[in-house]
Amino acid sequence: MSDQVKYVLDEAQIPKAWYNLNADFPKPMPAVLHPGTHQPIGPSDLEPLFPMDLILQEVSTERYIEIPEPVRDVFRMWRPAPLIRARRLEKLLDTPAKIYFKYEGVSPAGSHKPNTAVPQAWYNKEAGIKRLSTETGAGQWGSSLAFAGSLFGIDVTVFQVRVSYDQKPYRRALMETYGARCVASPSNETEAGRAVLAKDPNSPGSLGMAISEAVEIAAKDPAVKYALGSVLNHVMLHQTIIGEETIRQFELANDDPDVVIGCAGGGSNFAGLCFPYLGLQLRGGRSRRFIAVEPAACPTLTRGKYAYDFGDTAHLTPLMKMHTLGSTFMPPGFHAGGLRYHGMGAMVSHAYELGLIEARSYQQRGCFEAGVQFARCEGIVPAPESTHAVRCAIDEALRCKAEGKAETIVFNLSGHGHFDMQAYINFFEGKLVDLDYDEAALAQSLAGLPSIAA
After folding, report:
1. In angstroms, what CA-CA distances link 33 with 40, 154, 311, 329, 353?
2. Any idea where the Tryptophan synthase beta chain-like PALP domain is (predicted)?
3. Nearest to 415 by CA among 290, 292, 242
4. Phi and psi at residue 135, in whole multiples of 5°?
5. Of the four listed, 99, 180, 290, 417, which is most buried by Cβ atoms within 10 Å?
6. Residue among 218, 361, 363 nearest 292 (CA)
7. Does 30 score more than 90 pLDDT?
8. What are the domain boundaries of the chain?
9. CATH topology of domain 6-13+68-110+234-447
10. What tens digit of pLDDT does each residue of 96-106 get?
11. What angle do the packed helices 114-126 and 140-152 form, to 10 degrees?
12. DSSP letter string over 196-212?
C-alpha cells in the first residue's frame, strides 16, 4: 500500500458530530453587537433571520454538536469525501514533501457548500419555514442551497453578485435546475439594491451588497428566513465535518499533516479543514502551520483592520469583530467570486488575531497557473477559489525542496471548476490580468468603520 493514492472511509464512518472551536479558544471571542444599541445581541435579535436551532449553534461553546440523523442520511449521497495523495504533482515538483488534498468537489453541487446548506435547510424545514433568501458570489453557495431546498421542499431566492451572474451563466442554470430563483445583485427588488443602482447603474456588485438584499427580504417578511454560506459561527461548525473526516483518513495513511491550507473568503472551507486540527493542537496536541490563502485584490486578513463592522453594505446585519476592508469596499471583478467579500468570518479572524493561523495573499494569474499545473497532474480542474490553496500548497512543497524537508502538506480542494471554464479560457487567451484594489477607496471604506467604544 506504499503507493496508495485515495484514502476513503465507509458511509458508516461519516462523523456523528460537528466540532466547535469556540470550546477551545484560549481567549473568548468578542461579543456580536446590535447595530442600533451597540450592546451584545441576544437570540431574540436573530429570530427574524434564523430558526432557533441555528441561533443556539451560533452562540454555543459546546465542543461537539450532534449532526441530526436526517442530515447524515443526505450526506451519504457524497460523504465521506476522499483524501487523495497528489503523487504525480509531487513527482513533477521533485519535492521531498508529501502533498494531500481533501476533495470536496464530489458533492452534487460541486463544492464544500452543501455541508452547511443541507443542515441549514433541514433546521428551517423543522421550524416550518417554506422560503429562504440568500446571496452568492461565484454561485457555489447559491447552487448548494438550491439543491438543499429541493430536498426539503423550500423555495429559495438567490441574489447573485452581478459580475459573477454575468461571468458564470451555467451556475445560474444549475440553481434554476434545482428550482431556485436567481436575481442579479444589485437589483430593483430591494431598497438596498435600488439605492446602489441609483448611484451606479453599472455596479458590478459585491457579496456585501447581495447580503443586504437577501437580509432585507427576510427581515421584511416573517415567512422568509435568511441563509448564509460562510462567515457565521454555525457555518464554520457545519464545515468541520471536512476536518473530522480528514483526521481519520490520515490515520489510514499512517501520516499526519505539518501544514494545513485552505483558501479564504468568508473562511468556511478553511475553517472546515483546519479547525478540527487546531482544536487538537489547543488541547495539547502537536503544533502545525495553518495557512489561510486569500486574493491579493481582496486581502481581508493581510490588509484589513481587526474591528467591529457590518457584514453587509446596507448595514442591516449585527456588528461582528472581524478583519475587514470596510463594508462599503467594492473589490475588483476577479474570477474567484466566492472570495470577493469585505470581511473575514469572526472565528477565523479571532484565530488570526491570536496568532494561531497564518495568512497569505496571491494574484489570480499565479493561482490559475497553479490550477492548470495541478489539473495536468491530478486530472481535477479546480474552482478559481480553490486555485489559491493549490498555489500555496505548491509553494510550500517547493520550500520543502529548497530546505530539504520532507513535510506533509494537506489542502482543501473546495470545489471543481467545471462551471468556471470561461475563466480558464480567459487565462489561456492571455485576457486574465492581475487586478489591484483602489487604495483610496480602501482608505475611505476603512475610515467609515463604525465607532465602537473599547
Report:
1. 4, 30, 12, 21, 19
2. 78-415
3. 242
4. -125, 165
5. 99
6. 361
7. yes
8. 6-13+68-110+234-447
9. Rossmann fold (3.40.50)
10. 999 999 999 99
11. 40
12. HHHH-TT----HHHHHH
